[in-house]
Amino acid sequence: MGVVALVPAAGRGERLGYGVPKALVPVDGVPLLVRAVRGLFEAGCVRHVVVAAPPSDVDTVRTVTAPLAHAGGAVHVLAGGAERSDSVRLALEHALREFPDTDVVLVHDAARAFTPPHVVKAVVDAVRAGHPAVIPVLPVTDTVKQVDADGVVVATPDRSALRVVQTPQGFDARTLLRAHEAGLHATDDAGLVERLGVPVTTVPGHPDAMKITTPFDLAVAEALLVGGQA
Ligand SMILES: Nc1ccn([C@@H]2O[C@H](COP(=O)(O)OP(=O)(O)OP(=O)(O)O)[C@@H](O)[C@H]2O)c(=O)n1
Ligand SMILES: C[C@](O)(CO)[C@H](O)COP(=O)(O)O
Predict the structure, then answer these.
(1) Which parts form a coiled-coil structure per UniProt (predicted)?
(2) Which ligand 1 atom minimizes the distance to the CA of 12?
């Protein structure tokens, strides 16, 4: 029995526009991916990590992540796929083949490099408590509008019932495999599980678990977050 974290890190980081794949972008000299993997191990409950790397950078990713493995744990690196969900599926298949005693799987964006370890632990604890799918969330602070193709507002959903979704998302391993094998599309793994009719439970997320997507996000991380984690 053990927890394996899958880290989709194969994106190009086009919205960031840094010139190297986003996972390798340094913040205070430390690549985002290294920070993300460190945070997973620091939670104290993750045994192995499987990273889906940009296909052109598998060797570099192996080099930067190799020193992160702790006693009894491993960091495996493989080439990711065309879409995030392809990268997750490839990493999941690898994990279940290489670590067959895995019972809990986390999926964690390399781009959420500053996620506090206590959020990782809260997700794992909730899966271990019997919830087959668990996601960290934050309340929505802006009013949200639904618009049509012309940008005209068609609805204003009640924001008290809305949540912003972060990672790591945690799953019973067989449930996540079933969700990926169903061949559906969703922007996160919990979205695939929902379509199976499996309940998805929420735990509190954290503002530091922001997804670094744009140059603004990177500037925020550099200005606010480095001190606590460098
Ligand atoms: N084919 C892909 C695309 C994305 N990801 C990963 O999924 C996470 C969330 O994706 P996002 O933040 O959108 O990253 P990018 O795809 O790199 O961003 P962009 O769309 O700006 O290129 C990131 O850690 C990214 O590396 C992945 O593993 N494989
Ligand atoms: C998984 C995710 O981070 C949850 O908010 C998000 O859906 C990833 O989206 P992206 O467009 O691949 O960045």
Answers:
(1) none
(2) 17
Cβ neighbours of residue 104 closer than 8 Å, sequence gap 6 or more = 2, 3, 4, 124, 127, 128, 170, 171, 172, 173
Distance from the CA of 106 to the center of ligand 2, in angstroms? 14
Mean pLDDT confidence for 169-180: 98
Closest ligand 1 atom, residue 213 Cα: 12
Ligand nearest to the CA of 7: 1
Is any atom of ligand 1 closer than 6 Å to the C-beta of 110?
A: yes
The domain spans of the chain are 2-218
Q: Is the pTM of this model over 0.90?
A: yes
Contact assessment for residue 157 and residue 86, using Cβ atoms and an 8 Å cutoff: no
